[in-house]
Amino acid sequence: MALKITDECINCDVCEPVCPNQAISMGPEFYVIDPARCTECVGHFDEPQCAMLCPVACIPKDPAHVEDAQGLMQKYLRLTSQPV
C-alpha cells in the first residue's frame, strides 16, 4: 500500500530528498505522495525512509491504495526498468 502525508505535515523538507522513487513533491499546502510511484521503499530499503525520518509522524499507510509486498516489488521493478 502506498503511503500518504496528512495535513499535520509541517513542510520540514525531510521526506522529499530521501524518497528513492521521487514520489514526494510539494502540494498546494504541504507535501504529497504520488501513489503510482510510492513503493514504501521496497527494493531500496527495509522500511519507508520518509516515515522513519518524519519528525511529526504524519506519514501513515494510505488505505485508498492497498498493495501487498509483491505488488510493491513489481512497481519497484517497473520504476527502475528492470524485467518483471
TrEMBL record:
It comes from the Bacteria. Pfam families: Fer4_7 (PF12838). Keywords: 4Fe-4S, Electron transport, Iron, Iron-sulfur, Metal-binding, Transport. Signal peptide: none annotated. The keyword Phosphoprotein does not apply. GO terms for molecular function: 4 iron, 4 sulfur cluster binding; metal ion binding. Coiled coil: none annotated. Its cofactor is [4Fe-4S] cluster. PROSITE patterns: 4FE4S_FER_1, 4FE4S_FER_2. Residues 1-29 form the 4Fe-4S ferredoxin-type domain. This is Ferredoxin.
